[in-house]
Request: fold
Amino acid sequence: MANVTFKGKPVTLLGNEVKVGDKAPNFSALANDLSAVTLNDTKGQVRLLTSVPSLDTGVCDAEIRRFNESANSLGNVKILTVSCDLPFAQKRWCAAGGIENVQTLSDHRDLSFGEAYGVAIQELRLLTRAVFVVDSSDTVVYVEYVSEATDHPNYEAALEAAKAAK
Reply:
């Protein structure tokens, strides 16, 4: 498993670490309208998947805004951000921030995404910060588990991987 800290303290990640070349694990999370969303719902598309601890923190806010602003330069890439925030809070946050190019999903109910991608923090029942790019054939082509969950991911590397994926 990836070694991750949260505010400098080591945390335990649940699930399986995902690696480049793996078949992307399916998951089920809740959209802002409480409908179930799975990876299979976007089959045939390139997906940039991010997990964040909470939309209501400075780094998470900045991260989602950055990916939202970069979405137009990515072409036909679907951007999904998963957190354990409630769907209602995610909807409110997106509306207040003008987030239109990133779909936020809630993993609060089952930790399905968190366990499938090895990003669920056992001690906090939050997701750690990570970025995955999945190509149109469901192969993982980019992975970053951010070693300190309160730090920013490598935006440029993730965006380049999404642009290069087919």
Summary: The first strand starts at residue 4 and ends at 6. Residues 58-70 form the longest helix (13 residues).
